[in-house]
Amino acid sequence: MTKTASNGTVDSDTVQEVTEFLETFFTFYPTAPDKELAYYVKDNALPPIRRNYIFSELINPVFQKSGHQLQVWISVKYRDETTKGEQISQYVLTLEKDMNWMIVQ
Fold it and tell me: CA-to-CA distance for 81 and 97, rounded, in angstroms?
């Protein structure tokens, strides 16, 4: 992943709101059924992973506003309950807010 920096286009309230959304999402994401994913992810923009991972933390999220969308570069640390090892996954996400935040790409 290329090093990207926040560019000051996202205010602190939005950063807090989106961070809470992402923590909630990545907590249930590894084992979430398709029906639950649909509440957070539009048009299967992020495929299910169906792994026995336990969410640990978000690592160095970077937020940039682009029009009405928010770009997020993020690493997510999980504990793999099968191997007892750490799993770090990197994502580049595009989020939009209607009623709630949603991952659209």
Answer: 33
Q: Is 21 helix (H, G, I), strand (E, B) or coil?
A: helix
| The two structure tokens encoding residue 92 | 């580049």
Between CA 29 and CA 53 the distance in angstroms is 9
Which pTM does this prediction carry? 0.86
DSSP output for 69-97:
EEEEEEEEEEEETTT--EEEEEEEEEEEE
CB 87 within 8 A of CB 31: no
As a whole number of angstroms, the distance between CA 13 and CA 25 comes to: 18
- Whether the pLDDT of residue 88 is over 90: the answer is yes
Query: Is 90 exceeded by the pLDDT of residue 67?
Result: no
Where does the pLDDT of residue 5 fall: very low under 50, low under 70, confident under 90, or very high at 90 and above?
Answer: low
How far is the CA of 94 from the CAs of 56, 67, 79, 86, in angstroms? 22, 11, 25, 25
Q: Does the CA dihedral 55-60-63-64 come out positive or negative?
A: negative
